[in-house]
Write a structure and sequence with these properties.
Structural class of chain A: alpha+beta
Radius of gyration of chain B: 24 Å
Family (chain A): Belongs to the ABC transporter superfamily. Spermidine/putrescine importer (TC 3.A.1.11.1) family.
Order of helices and strands of chain A: EEEHEEEHHHEHEHEEHHEEEEEEEEEE
Helix content of chain A: 10-25%
Helix content of chain B: over 70%
Keywords (chain A): ATP-binding, Cell membrane, Membrane, Nucleotide-binding, Translocase, Transport
Strand content of chain B: under 5%
Mean pLDDT of chain A: 90
Number of helices of chain B: 12
Catalytic activity (chain A): ATP + H2O + polyamine-[polyamine-binding protein]Side 1 = ADP + phosphate + polyamineSide 2 + [polyamine-binding protein]Side 1
Low-confidence stretches of chain A: none
CATH class of the largest domain in chain B: Mainly Alpha
Low-confidence stretches of chain B: none
Shape of chain B: globular
CATH topology of the largest domain in chain A: Rossmann fold
CATH architecture of the largest domain in chain A: 3-Layer(aba) Sandwich
Strand content of chain A: 35-45%
CATH topology of the largest domain in chain B: MetI-like fold
Number of helices of chain A: 8
Mean pLDDT of chain B: 91
Number of domains of chain B: 2
CATH superfamily of the largest domain in chain A: P-loop containing nucleotide triphosphate hydrolases
Number of strands of chain B: 2
Number of strands of chain A: 20
GO molecular function (chain A): ABC-type polyamine transporter activity; ATP binding; ATP hydrolysis activity
Largest sheet of chain A: 6 strands, mixed
Distance between the termini of chain A: 38 Å
CATH architecture of the largest domain in chain B: Orthogonal Bundle
Oligomer: heterodimer
Domain ABC transporter (chain A): 5-235
CATH superfamily of the largest domain in chain B: MetI-like
Order of helices and strands of chain B: HEEHHHHHHHHHHH
Largest sheet of chain B: 2 strands, antiparallel
Structural class of chain B: mainly alpha
Strand order of the largest sheet of chain A: 6-7-8-3-9-10
Largest interface: A-B, 24 and 19 residues
Shape of chain A: elongated
């Protein structure tokens, strides 16, 4: 696969404020790539620079090998799906879609046929004559997608495409957009602050922090092997404990954390720093029953409270060192909420060495 | 008395006083005006009657029709001039000016004259355009003319300039408000779809701001149509407006019935314009 979008050391400054700082990124042709991060991390600015709505302060942007750094949006073979869709309120659904075909020289019945086909693709057949204000949020979103798709761009840019929808519809549209991407074979470049959305939809996720790329990888990479505490914290939930190396050998590193000695699979921290803290995902620990054989690592503590979440039960455990750990257990059949340790009960947590994430010292 | 009854009395005062005011000082005078318009002038005063002679006079004597025509013409010219000046200005403020403070200052700059007496502002143009005025002395100072010219003042052009100056805030305000309501990303969406900013302006911005244009045009037109101060101060012998003729009918000519008929005609014209604009505004209105 060839890179369809190449960002070469892109920076964007607003006066003294750095929005994006020397970002290098190559988007492969046909992939679904998501820029993920909290608001103000520079992800939207990056997307807007690809769309041509902002000009980078430094660096080069190439789309399909052509330098478009200074080109206006009109001259770029990409189309944006705007956050609140930006449909033209004074035009019908059909006019909204054919509007983008005019400059391509497609007019009259040819334009109408193409628009109808795009509407069919997004599941809105027969809506050509409708007015945009007659549509629901989900339908507007589909029209916005049809308007972008009909121009057959090389890349479709999606700016927080699902943020205006309610939770149920959002979940449904996540899968639908992903299917749409597979069907069209066009590159999708999306921006979101919603980690679930990113994990569900993307082939690759780029996590951004303060204008820079924090980690770039598949959804699984990011979740299972977060490079930094920032990523571990942003994607999913992580318990952090400060840690000190006691001994190393045979692929295991012995650490002192939470007043206990823990053994972890010895891998280098991503930033090459000495180990300063560890992270454990709440669902990668279990509360040990007396009958169970003990895993390599145990952490004794006291239950602070239990939180019933329907699918899972979250237990807050205070370790003897004073740190609080979250433990999530899926509530399977036969595993009753009422059987579980209650607040005040002493418990022992077990964790396997390969489930301990190693990070450098806290900054 | 129960609380509910007290409540009702309070509400009665709250709603009743304004309604009484409007009936007493607006609807009743309209009725009086309408009644007078059917009366007959009989020297030295007038007597009650029900006949259409006053309206026939307006139709048959060309001077009245021509004054109505001239008033319409001036009102249209002023409204168009104000629109041509106000739209680009409002567009510049809303879409092109990035600095919010400067935008507010410039907008306020256009609105501020409304706080100055209308008469004073009209008089101001007499000072500018007059023979001893600013314009003449500047031109003489520059050596372009050797003697003061009297062509600037007392003409329809002077009236158009004065009226445009006076009423332009009423054009700028609704257009500015309409433009401000247009979501910014529609411009970006249009560019994204390959359309030039010129096309975007005509196909997206203008249609979406039409309600503001209609409101501004209606306000300016109606205010202009009823004006008599500009004609009085800077208009020449060929600058008489309907309102001036009405004033003279009620004054020097002492022909209240004819003046009333003329006033009724004016009222009908204004109401027609307003209802037309209302219908047009309904059609151009969009939900964002």
């Amino acid at each position: 696969m060839a890179a369809i979008i190449e960002l070469d050391s892109i920076s964007k400054h607003y006066g003294p404020v750095v929005g994006v700082n020397h970002v290098d990124l190559a988007v492969e042709d046909g992939e679904f790539l998501t820029l993920l991060g909290p608001s103000g991390c520079g992800k939207s600015t990056l997307l807007r620079m690809v769309g041509g709505f902002e000009v980078p302060s430094a660096g080069t942007i190439r789309i399909a090998g052509v330098d478009v750094t200074a080109a206006p949006p009109q001259q770029r073979d990409v189309n944006m799906m705007f956050q609140d869709y930006a449909l033209f309120p004074h035009m019908t659904v059909g006019k909204n879609i054919t509007y983008g075909l005019e400059r391509k020289g497609i007019k009259g019945t040819a334009a109408r046929d193409k628009a109808e086909a795009a509407l069919e693709l997004v599941g809105l057949s027969g809506m050509f004559e409708r007015h945009t204000h007659q549509l629901s949020g989900g339908q507007r979103q589909r029209v916005a997608l049809a308007r972008a798709v009909v121009r057959e761009p090389k890349v479709i840019l999606l700016d927080e495409p699902l943020s205006a929808l309610d939770a149920k519809l959002r979940e449904q549209m996540q899968v639908e957009l992903k299917h749409m991407h597979e069907k069209l074979g066009i590159t999708f470049l999306m921006v979101t602050h919603d980690q679930t959305e990113a994990l569900v939809m993307s082939d690759r996720v780029v996590v951004m922090e303060a204008g820079e790329i924090a980690q770039d990888g598949t959804p699984e990479d990011l979740y299972e092997r977060p490079a930094t505490p920032y990523v571990a914290n942003f994607i999913g939930t992580t318990n952090f404990l400060s840690a000190r190396v006691v001994a190393r050998g045979a692929g295991l590193v012995t650490l002192e954390a939470g007043n206990q000695e823990l053994k972890a699979t010895d891998v280098a921290t991503s930033d090459g720093q000495a180990i300063g803290q560890i992270g454990i995902r709440p669902e990668k620990m279990q509360i040990l029953k007396d009958t169970e054989c003990r895993p390599v690592n145990v952490l004794p503590g006291t239950v602070v409270e239990t939180i019933y979440q329907g699918l899972a039960l979250r237990t807050v455990v205070r370790l003897s060192s004073g740190e609080e750990m979250l433990v999530d257990e899926i509530l399977r059949q036969g595993m009753l909420h009422s059987d579980h340790p209650r607040a005040g009960d002493p418990v022992v947590l077990g964790v396997e060495p390969h489930n301990i994430l190693l990070f450098g010292a806290e900054r | 008395m129960t609380l509910r009854a007290l409540d009702r009395i309070g509400m009665g005062f709250f709603l009743g006083l304004p309604i009484l005011w409007i009936v007493l000082f607006m609807l009743v005078p309209y009725g009086v005006l309408l009644t007078y318009s059917f009366w007959i002038k009989s020297y030295p005063l007038f007597e009650p009657a029900f006949q259409f002679g006053n309206y026939l006079t307006l139709l048959n004597e060309p001077q009245y029709l021509s004054v109505i025509g001239r008033t319409l013409k001036i009102a249209v010219i002023v409204s168009v001039t104000a629109l041509v000046l106000a739209y680009p200005f409002a567009y510049f403020l809303v879409f092109r000016l990035k600095n919010v403070t400067i935008r507010k200052v410039l907008f306020f700059g256009v609105i501020a004259p409304l706080w100055v007496s209308y008469l004073l502002r009209a008089y101001l143009w007499k000072t500018i355009l007059g023979t001893q005025g600013v314009l003449n002395s500047t031109l003489m100072g520059l050596g372009i003319i050797s003697e003061p010219l009297d062509i600037f003042l007392y003409s329809q052009a002077a009236m158009v300039i004065t009226l445009t100056y006076i009423f332009i805030p009423f054009m700028v305000m609704p257009i500015y408000a309409a433009l401000e309501k247009i979501p910014r990303n529609l411009d970006e969406a249009s560019a994204d779809l390959g359309q030039s900013s010129w096309t975007t302006f005509w196909r997206v911005t203008v249609p979406l701001s039409l309600p503001g244009v209609v409101a501004g045009f209606t306000l300016t037109f109606c205010l202009c149509f009823g004006d008599f101060v500009a004609a009085f101060l800077v208009g020449g012998p060929d600058g008489l407006m309907v309102a001036n003729v009405i004033t003279s009918q009620f004054g020097a000519a002492l022909n209240w019935p004819l003046g009333s008929a003329l006033a009724v005609v004016m009222l009908v014209v204004v109401l027609a314009i307003i209802s037309l604009s209302d219908r047009f505004e309904q059609r151009t209105k969009v939900q964002f």
